[in-house]
Structures are given as structure tokens and as C-alpha cells.
Amino acid sequence: MIRSGIRWLWAGQMVFFLSAWSLHAANPAGVNQVYEIPFEYKNHFILIKLTFQNVLPLTFIFDTGAETTLLTSLEIANLLDLTYEREIQIVGADLEAELSAFLVRNIHIQLGDVALPYQSILVLEEDVFHFNEYTGTQVHGILGSSTFRQFIVEIDYEDRLIRLYRPSDFRAPRNSERLDLEIHRSKPYLSTTVKPANGDEVSIKLLVDSGASLAMVIHPETNPNLSIPEKVVPGNIGMGLGGNLQGVLGIMPTIHLGKTQLHDVPVHFQEIRSMVDSVFLNNRNGILGNKVLERYTATFDYYRGVLYLQPNRLYKKEFPIDKSGMLVIASGPELKTFMVHAVLKESPAAKAGVRPGDIIVSINYSSFRFFDLDAIYRVLSRPEGKLIRLKLDRKGLKFRTEFRLEKLL
Q1: Residue 236: beta bridge partners?
Q2: Do residues 339 and 373 share a domain?
Q3: Are residues 135 and 184 in the same domain?
Q4: Which residues make Cβ contacts (< 8 Å) with residue 298, sequence separation at least 6?
Q5: In Å, how far are 120, 147, 195 from 117, measured between CA atoms?
Q6: 352 close to 403: Cβ distance less than 8 angstroms
């Protein structure tokens, strides 16, 4: 049985646990009152262009849910002849698998006018994230939260800007919700409440994770009142260091964020193993990701332990949810080949004969010369009943099929 078809990928909690090492960002030189760093937003990932070691332009995911900056390309590290100080075992998103990474110190990162010298990073022995496939863009690593903890960090999802302030120069934004944060191992945790389908409010603690391209993850076994809804869609949450992250997708009727509320939020329910170190989990019940954060301008005050949320134009909009039942990834030399990675059983795509491995040549007679993954996802999240016409290539054999979008939840 195929248990896939959910297209969210998860960067932040996929990262790692450093059992004996604390890696700190150096104070950047010449920081003024505010610096603006533009970013791209691809498939709900924040992508920042930077200069690595003063010579190499790279793209990293901006990730408040990861403690330390991570380079996913061993080839780049070898090309630049980086010196590995020691090997470290890291724990992945399945909270079981251990992989090898190498500690490298004194790395120089340039973000526009912001210089971040003397950085300590980890180099992953093998790229198991495959962010390229899920973003349609070459991605070379993750910028962890410890890199920016000396700043006040504002993520403006509408203007596609990250603004960095010195704590002494920062003033709280007007008309914003002020929420207390717990900062643990440089990562922000938020205590709030949700209202499941049973109608009783439940207090929960969430890792606030800008590296998660989903709305929310709940670990149901961490609280008996966080039961899995009756109606769910089985599937993979994404790919992490430990491989596929299994879970189910359901609907949370209400999430409270201060005085603001979000309704009918798509939530992934992922069970965790009882042997997982509670210190690593920091007693959290789940994760808050970009599909929620993007509805606000989110400002992280690590210095005072505060999160400010200002609702934007997305705040009251319905959460987009795939209504096709197929997971599409980008491949090929220019990431312009779009392949069906998995198909949910009994979904509209499955009933139309779509299979994993099929190459999508066109959707609704539009070719992909100017398309990207975001455009495909928007098409597949349109209202129920919309007709989707596909031209597919299956091992050289081209054919057409069609189906109408259906609510899977």
C-alpha cells in the first residue's frame, strides 16, 4: 500500500542533536540599526542567497528550528579544501537514525551587507535532504538559528525580506501580538492552546520552525488529549536524515496564537518513539511551521524571549490543501523535469491512472517552460471540482488523462 501523496517537507526538525558541542555565531562586524536580506519563498521554504568563504555563491534555507548551520554538500566542502576538526554523530527527523557530519570552524558567510565571520558549521557526509527536488531550486544547506541569535530577527513573508536589528535598537512592532518564547539550544519554543475536534482546549508546546514547509506537526502520544482525528490522509511528512517521515494529515479546528485564531488548520500527526531523549525534544508536543507563520510578519526577539506576530493579508485565507493525491518533485539538470514521486491510494490521481515515476509534460495544456513547483502546487490546490488535464510521459510513452479535484479531508 502506498502511504504517500502529501507534499510537505520538513527541514528544521530533520537536522541534528549535538551531544557534546555548542557551536556559536561570532558577532558580525559593522551592524547598523537594521539590515534587510531578501529571500525567495519556494514551496513554503525561505531561501537565502549568500556568499560562502568570500568566493562561492550558495543558497541556504533559513531555519529557526535548526540549532546550527549545516552544509549538505560534501563536494563543496572538498572543493574549498575545508578542514574538518572532528566527526560528530547527528540524529535525524525520525529521531532514530544517526549519520555522520564534520565540524568545521572559522567559516565566513556574507548575507548582503551583513558579514558573519568565524562561523562554526557542520558538513553532512551525505545529502539526504534532497531539497532541490522539493523546492525546484539548488539548495546547499541550512542556516541555523544560532547564527542569528544576537539579532532581533523579523521575517516579512509578504515583502520577502528578513530584517536584522540589534537588541538595543529594536522597538516592538505596532499592532502585533506579543507571545512569550522559551529559547532552548538557540531554538524558539511557544506555549499556546489548540482546540481539537472533541471541543476541549489543550495546552501545547511547539518548536517554532521556519524550516518546516507545513503548518503544524503534533506528536499525539505526548498528551492524551491530542488524539488523531477520525478523518485523516495517510502519507509521508517528508524526507529527513532518517529517511521518510511517516504520519497522517488531519484538520485541527482551532489554533490560538495570542488573541488571533486560525481555523481548519492542516496538521500532521507523527508518532515518536518512547526511547527518544526528552532533553532533545525539550518536552514539546509538536512543531509550528511556515504555513502558519506566513500569515504573519514574525519577529523573534531571542534576547528577551518574545515572538511578535502581525497578521498580514493571508491571515484569514483558507489553508491550501492538495486535492489531487499526488506528490510531485523536480528533477533533471535544470530542475525543470516534474516527476510524480508518489500517489495516494483511492485519490483522484490514482483513479485517473497516474503512477509514481510518471513525468508530467503539461497540466491543463500548459507546458512547464515557465512553470515551477509552486505553480503546480497552486493548480492542485484549487477548489473542489476543478478539472485537471494531464499529459504524462511513462517510460517514453506519452498519454493523456484527467480528473477532478476532490477534498481529501
Answers
A1: 246
A2: yes
A3: no
A4: 154, 155, 157, 208, 210, 307, 308, 309
A5: 9, 10, 45
A6: yes
Give the list of residues 6+ apart from residue 68 with CB closer than 8 angstroms, or none: 15, 16, 18, 23, 120, 121, 122, 144, 146
Which residue do the cell numbers 488548520 mark? 265
Q: Do 90 and 222 reside in the same domain of the chain?
A: no
Per-residue CA distances from 258 to 3, 291, 307 (Å)? 35, 17, 10
Residue 302: how many CA atoms within 13 Å on its side-chain side? 21
What is the reported pTM? Answer: 0.86
Per-residue pLDDT of 38-75, as tens digits, reads 999 998 999 999 999 999 999 999 999 988 899 999 99
Same domain, 184 and 277: yes
| Cβ-contact 384, 369 below 8 angstroms | no
pLDDT of residue 18: 40
152 in the same domain as 54:
yes
Residue-wise pLDDT for 332-356, tens only, equals 877 888 999 889 989 999 999 999 9
Tell me the three cell numbers of residue 29. Answer: 562586524
Positions in the chain whose pLDDT score sits under 50? 1-32, 94, 239-243, 275
DSSP-derived pairing of the beta strands 296-301 and 306-311: antiparallel
